What does this fold into?
Amino acid sequence: MNKITYFSAILIILVSCAEKENEYLPKYSYEQGEELSVGQLTTTILGANAFDQPIPNLSIIDNRLFFVGNSLFRQNWVSSPASTTARDGLGPTFNARSCSACHNKDGRGVPLQEGQNFSKGFLMRISTFGSNSNGAPKPIEFYGDQIQEHANIGVPYEAKVSVKFEYLKGEFNDGETYELRKPIYTISDEQFGSLQNILTSPRVGQQVIGLGFIDALSEQDLLANIDENDRDGDGISGKANYVWNVITRKHELGRFGWKANQPNLKQQVAGAFHGDMGLTSSLFPSENCPTTQQDCLNAVNGGSPEVTDDALKNVMIYATSLAVPIRRNYNNEKVLKGKHLFREMKCSSCHIESFTTRSYSFNSALENIKIRPFSDFLLHDMGDELADNRPDFFASGKEWRTQPLWGIGLIKEVNNHTFFLHDGRARNIEEAILWHGGEADKSKEAYKNLTKEDRTAVLAFINSL
Ligand code: HEC
Ligand code: HEC
It folds into this structure.
């Protein structure tokens, strides 16, 4: 035996011994700390209040302001004139009276159901073809960019939206069948002229946990996952949205909303006050009344602005300090198998498991934390079936931002429902997966090809997030 063969023989023996050893290790492994979605700032409080917990160790002042912000988020705002000046100025037109009406217990909104004209957490964005001078969807002259189905007394609401479902059948590879429901919306009762043949985008409010951590991700880390021309050939691209920042008056990377249509948390929050509740702030100082809605323009306002900078700051302290709950059953064998399959099916190419936060001037406690949001916060073509066909800045009518999956398994307990995806069409997690198309088509097909046992493992894993 010459030296080389001698050494390779030894090597083969060593390798096969090591393989033997592995047989005794669990097949799917737990990774140290994987249950901590936002590191040491993860909350261990579970149950129906799992989403409204502050990060641990808030300073005494921030803790107090967290609760002030919480009440501004939770309580109803009222129309002016009113006996309270702290929470007045609602409307003239609006979708809901409080943030929590749509983000109940900081969780997921409820989609529109058949026979309803309103639901807690649903809204319809509208526009006409083309874009305005900032690149935003072009508003409809007599209505703006969102249907407000409510208004203060003496002011007309804009229109009503209703839904009907069409049922589609499908089959897993093992022969088991399933049924999906596709929403078809109707706009009626328009008060300012026709809203037929326009562009529409139905959306449901997401859980609002861990937002400060998303705000604290660096642009560079987010852009690192872009693969717009799919150079690695895996069929998954990932594209950034660039959206208008009303303060810097520049286009910036979008990161919040179902199409990553808001550049930062402050603008997202001020935009919600303005668009969803009719409340002005220093970011959006004019009432949300199209120039043709006279009663809206003439209505009494609640001061200028209606949401003071202090109030906005307190809501920001609240929103940035909301923690993320600890994962459950994370080292259970079935869940670990589900995690393995999730990776094998390339779900994790879009639902990216972890990031590390960088510098964050609003709250340095959120810096340098390893977070596990299961999102790349980028846009992906999700196919024709999920398309709203309404572009939003650089997002096409087929593109959506990967929704973070953290907290998803608790939505049932927090919100008493399991409606998922941007318009809440999926009635459970499995239906949400089955709606995936476009760049996620291969992953969806891989899921459909799994055995029933493996499908249950994937669902157990997602429910553990
Ligand atoms: C009428 C229902 C409604 C109301 C009221 C509402 N929201 Fe929302 N919220 C939504 C919807 C729908 C979205 C998704 C918007 C989109 O994709 O454009 C959303 C998105 C958000 C997001 C982004 C979440 C993410 O993961 O990107 C935040 C933060 C947020 N809302 C905070 C608030 C705050 C703060 C208030 C009160 C000032 C508020 N919302 C009021 C429905 C509502
Ligand atoms: C190409 C990127 C991509 C891939 C691959 C992908 N997803 Fe998604 N996922 C998304 C996007 C984008 C959304 C939001 C779509 C929408 O709301 O219309 C989403 C939404 C979801 C949701 C619903 C989230 C919620 O809170 O409403 C679940 C669950 C989910 N994905 C699981 C999976 C699983 C499991 C796989 C692998 C089988 C997978 N995804 C593969 C991009 C992807």
Q: What stands out?
A: The chain has a mean pLDDT of 95. The longest strand covers residues 160-171. The chain has one domain: 39-463. The chain is about 25% helix and 15% strand.
